[in-house]
UniProtKB/TrEMBL annotation:
Keyword Transport: no
Superkingdom of source: Bacteria
NCBIfam families the UniProt entry points to: CXXU_selWTH
InterPro entries: Selenoprotein_Rdx-typ, Thioredoxin-like_sf
A Pfam family: Rdx
The protein's name: SelT/SelW/SelH family protein
Keywords: Redox-active center
Organism of this sequence: Komagataeibacter medellinensis
Annotated SUPFAM superfamilies: Thioredoxin-like
Amino acid sequence: MTDTSHTRPHVSILYCTRCNWLLRAGWMAQELLSTFGEELGSVSLIPASGGRFEITVDSKLVWERKRDGGFPGPKVLKQRVRDVIAPDRDLGHLDRTSPAEDES
């Protein structure tokens, strides 16, 4: 069996340790691994400070707490990661709009 993890995308979740965001970062890593398991090479948690919370896929920034206004929900997180690693992939129910979204 050939290890292809070095050729698959790598997600990094940089989180502020002073803000106690480790559990949030770990939960997001778990969500991504559950959805994209074998499509990802790795998901790394990177401790930082200064209120930073950033998610990158390889070197592409897909979420930044200050820029994007808080933290992503699981739907937005998975869609943004998918848009980088597999833009044609259907995420099933996550890609469907709810009636509330249709009214806006």
